[in-house]
Amino acid sequence: KQPLNIVKMKKMKQDGVPISMLTAYDYPSARLAEEADIDMILVGDSLGNVVLGYDSTIPVTLDDMVYHTRSVARGAEHTFIVADMPFMTYHGSVDESLKGVRRLMQEGHAHAVKLEGGAEIADTVRRIVQAGVPVLGHIGLTPQSVNQIGGYRVQGKDQADAERLMRDAKALEEAGAFAVVLELVTEESAAEITQALSIPTIGIGAGRYCDGQVLVYHDILKYASPYREKRFVKTYADIGTAVREGIAQYVREVKERAFPAEEHIFTTAQKTAAAGPV
Ligand code: KIV
Ligand code: NA
Fold this sequence. Notes:
This protein is of the alpha/beta class. It has helices at 6-15, 27-35, 47-50, 62-75, 94-107, 122-130, 146-149, 159-175, 187-196, 217-220, 239-255; strands at residues 19-23, 40-43, 80-84, 112-114, 135-140, 179-183, 201-204, 212-215. Helix 2 packs across helix 4. The mean pLDDT is 96. Bound molecules: 3-methyl-2-oxobutanoic acid and sodium ion. The site of 3-methyl-2-oxobutanoic acid (KIV) has 11 residues, from strand 6. Sodium ion binds at residues 44-46, 57, 84. Mg(2+) binds at residues 45, 84, 116.
């Protein structure tokens, strides 16, 4: 399978073919997403919440992102992988930003990076693009700024806010971003931005008219996600329950000495010492 690339993505928008994106954070999640034919994987800094147990994305470091991106790359060798630039790694010097991008690409094996923000980071986006790196924008609710925004709430509700989002989206397109994530944006505002841009919009809680959709792995699979039920998430499987029940059964069987059973043991009379595939 040929991985998607940013040229094909633009063509998908032109042809009205929706782009599917899901987060993944390690080898198994990436492998399963690739086997399910996802178009694009995001190694999101949402890993702070769903994998590392923090209550926001702010504590996530560049080392965390590199480590997880590298694991994802090993699990999904044929899928386009975007890695998040974490909190405060792209607001200082251009050199510092580029150094972070270099690590995510060279050590993490990402194909592209994502940065939160609009017009105010357009110059940084331009410099990264000039270095040959595809950049995914991210506007609307930007979780790294949650303490400034004052909570996780829907963006673009009033005219001024919608106009600001439109300006930010256009600034990112003009700076060379290959697509823009719209997070928690009203359906009307997201539709207008999608119409106005030649690059794809990827929505999360941004309605039906974006060029693609992205959701968080642990959310759609009910995998011990720390969040309350969110309106914009749909549950496609409940692996949390399956995992808990499986472990509980294992615990019971150990306590009852029902496991291991005869088929799981080795004896001196057996001809081979091979324990099976590693
Ligand atoms: O970190 C993440 O998972 C994200 C998506 C919610 C877009 O940035
Ligand atoms: Na993120």
